[in-house]
Amino acid sequence: MFDNKYLVNIYVLSLDTNYEVYLPANEKVGNITKLMNITLFDSINSDKNCKFINADTGVLYNNNDLVRNTDIKNDSKLMLI
């Protein structure tokens, strides 16, 4: 139905909280992690280098990959560390 975005569950380790988020398929993983960092931690110039990890497979996602070129799909469980 929605080929341009995926509904995923993101567990934020440092906050011990889950979020249901739509990820745009044509966006780089690194841009999404940067926006999540700004939104969740309210810090534009933070030295945090957040990464997405697939909670089921343990895959660490490259920041330069487009979401559509990864194994992220609807109902994926990701961790933001």
Poorly predicted ranges (pLDDT <50, ≥5 residues)? Answer: none
- CA distance, first residue to last residue: 30 Å
Helix and strand sequence: EEHEE
Extended strand count: 4
CATH 4th-level superfamily = Phosphatidylinositol 3-kinase Catalytic Subunit, Chain A, domain 1
Sheet/helix structural class: alpha+beta
Q: What oligomeric arrangement do these chains adopt?
A: single chain
What would your notes on this structure say?
The N and C termini lie far apart (30 Å). This protein has 81 residues and is an alpha+beta fold. Strands 2-1-4-3 form a four-stranded mixed β-sheet, with helices on one face. The protein has one helix and four strands; from the N terminus they run ββαββ. Helices cover 16% and strands 28% of the residues. A hairpin with a 4-residue loop joins strand 1 (5-12) and strand 2. It has one domain (5-80): Phosphatidylinositol 3-kinase Catalytic Subunit, Chain A, domain 1 (Ubiquitin-like (UB roll)). The chain is globular.
